[in-house]
Amino acid sequence: MMTLSQLVLASHNAGKLKELQALLGNAVRVRSVGEFSDVAPEETGLSFVENAILKARHAARLSGLPALADDSGLAVDALGGAPGIHSARYAGGGGDAANNAKLLEALREVPDAERGARFVCALALVRHAEDPLPIICEGLWQGRILHAPRGTEGFGYDPLFWVPERGCSSAELASAEKNRLSHRARAMLQLRQRLGLA
């Protein structure tokens, strides 16, 4: 079991940093890679896990500390798993609204029964940049893609992601509820267990 007093998060996102600190509790101090550098690694992996490992190694190399990275996205059955690792840039960098519009267009003729999808989160924790045995945790959140956006909470594909167990879109969930159900929450629970924090 790995014991940590601090780690660096391979993200410049202040919200993600705060969320992670809350999930890990006070036992581990979480620092942003932004304290060490603004240079982001090229995400050349072919999977969520590969990209998470690339980002974690990069952050560990920059900081000299154990590093945690996540790579997340949406995988839609009818699109062969797309947008997948390209979720954030699906519409060429046009932002959430453009990504959602492109997804709806791609699924325009697809019936409800074939609109299955899942949010995926891969977490990678490395002790140091050359760690031969990263801790990998994956979380999946099953749902389906709606025909039109619903709700105003969340971000990304949340307005199009139907959550069957709650009978609403992800963007209609309160943030605390989403943080209990989401792919990231599921991956983080595994990580807490692996670190002996759960």
TrEMBL record:
SUPFAM superfamilies, alphabetized: ITPase-like
Does Metal-binding count among this protein's keywords? Answer: yes
Gene Ontology molecular function: dITP diphosphatase activity; ITP diphosphatase activity; metal ion binding; nucleotide binding; ribonucleoside triphosphate phosphatase activity; XTP diphosphatase activity
Which terms under GO biological process does the entry name?
Answer: nucleotide metabolic process; purine nucleoside triphosphate catabolic process
Q: Which GO terms describe its cellular component?
A: cytosol
Q: Which cofactor does it need?
A: Mg(2+)
**Which InterPro entries does the UniProt record give?**
dITP/XTP_pyrophosphatase, ITPase-like_fam, RdgB/HAM1
Say if the entry is tagged with keyword Nucleotide-binding. Answer: yes
Catalysed reaction equations from the record: XTP + H2O = XMP + diphosphate + H(+); dITP + H2O = dIMP + diphosphate + H(+); ITP + H2O = IMP + diphosphate + H(+)
The residues annotated as the active site are 71 (proton acceptor)
Q: Which Pfam families match?
A: Ham1p_like
Lineage top rank: taxon: Bacteria
Binding positions for Mg(2+)? 42, 71
PANTHER family in the record, alphabetically? INOSINE TRIPHOSPHATE PYROPHOSPHATASE (PTHR11067:SF9), INOSINE TRIPHOSPHATE PYROPHOSPHATASE/HAM1 PROTEIN (PTHR11067)
Protein task: Pyrophosphatase that catalyzes the hydrolysis of nucleoside triphosphates to their monophosphate derivatives, with a high preference for the non-canonical purine nucleotides XTP (xanthosine triphosphate), dITP (deoxyinosine triphosphate) and ITP. Seems to function as a house-cleaning enzyme that removes non-canonical purine nucleotides from the nucleotide pool, thus preventing their incorporation into DNA/RNA and avoiding chromosomal lesions.
Family matches, as HAMAP family: Non_canon_purine_NTPase
> What is the protein name for this chain?
dITP/XTP pyrophosphatase
Report the source organism.
Answer: Azotobacter vinelandii (strain DJ / ATCC BAA-1303)
